[in-house]
Design a protein that fits this description.
Blueprint (H helix, E strand, L loop, with lengths): L11 H10 L9 H17 L10 H14 L3 H15 L5 H9 L2
């Protein structure tokens, strides 16, 4: 398996700037949840060619995050819990690792 390079993580200050540019209402949305979303979407694209962003434009990524937070203000907390539960069911493997293992059988 290819070794992943360390992906840049957005800071809270960067998340606030990106959210401000997108017109995020910080009374409605939590900037920390927005930051978690930015980092999650960026990381998701690094290991899956199907979800990899054509660019690493923070505004584009922020729009994806805003869409998810409109669905549920704690979308990324829920998503992280589902990922943990799914990994536990797969024996600790990420979905892409499990798929590769299944295909090699």
């Amino acid at each position: 398996m290819e070794k992943q390079t360390k992906q840049k993580q957005f800071t809270l200050a960067e998340a606030k700037i990106i959210g401000d540019k997108l017109g995020m209402d910080w009374e409605t949305f939590d900037v920390k949840q927005f930051r978690v979303g930015l980092n999650a979407e960026l990381a998701d694209g690094t290991y899956s060619p199907l979800t990899n962003f054509a660019s690493q434009d923070p505004i584009l990524i922020g729009k994806v995050v805003r869409t998810h937070l409109n669905e549920a203000p704690d979308y990324y907390t829920q998503w992280a819990q589902m990922e943990k539960d799914a990994a536990r069911e797969r024996g600790g493997k990420r979905a892409d690792e499990q798929e590769a293992a299944d295909q090699s059988k």
